[in-house]
Amino acid sequence: MVDQILEKYPNDVRVVIKNFPLGSHKQANKAALYALAAGRQGKYKEMYKKIFDNYKQLRNNEDLPLQYAEELGLNINQIKSDIKDPALQRLIDLEASQLKGTGMRMAVPKFLINGKEPQGRDLNAWSSIIDGYLKK
């Protein structure tokens, strides 16, 4: 649905992805590190999509993103080094802390439109919200 929204509002909507690995998913933090490390090589969105589309497989192999990195043509040694960089973990911690204390239900993925969580995930409902903001 995000792709549909971007197609409908190519000049008015921007997608920002923040990392909020839930503690109930032990592989989530490492997956976020892999996505950020791939971003250093210009492939954040591609890695994020592969990880998110295949998250159940990570339960058995938290280093599966290394395979994705190969598929994306990334430098594997650089990925392995970058996931150990404390700056990436600090970024994850900062992004997660921004959501805590807001009163919002902690869930992944979490969608916000202009800082507010829409009820449900329906293209028409989201379009109505976006249209309302655009009319202001």
Give a verbal description of the structure.
This protein has 136 residues and is mainly alpha-helical. The chain has a single domain, classed as Glutaredoxin (3-Layer(aba) Sandwich), CATH 3.40.30. It is 54% helix and 0% strand. It contains eight helices and no strands. α2 runs antiparallel to α3 and α2 packs across α6. The longest helix has 14 residues. The protein starts with a helix and ends with a helix.
Summarize the structure.
By secondary structure, the protein is an all-alpha fold. It is built from eight helices and no strands.
Number of strands: 0
- Radius of gyration, in angstroms, nearest whole number: 16 Å
Low-confidence stretches: none
**Strand residue content:** under 5%
The chain-level structural class is mainly alpha
The CATH class label is Alpha Beta
Task: Tell me the count of domains.
Answer: 1
Shape: globular
* CATH architecture title: 3-Layer(aba) Sandwich
CATH superfamily: Glutaredoxin
| Mean model confidence by pLDDT | 89
How far the N terminus sits from the C terminus, by CA atoms, comes to 24 Å
Encode the helix/strand succession as letters: HHHHHHHH
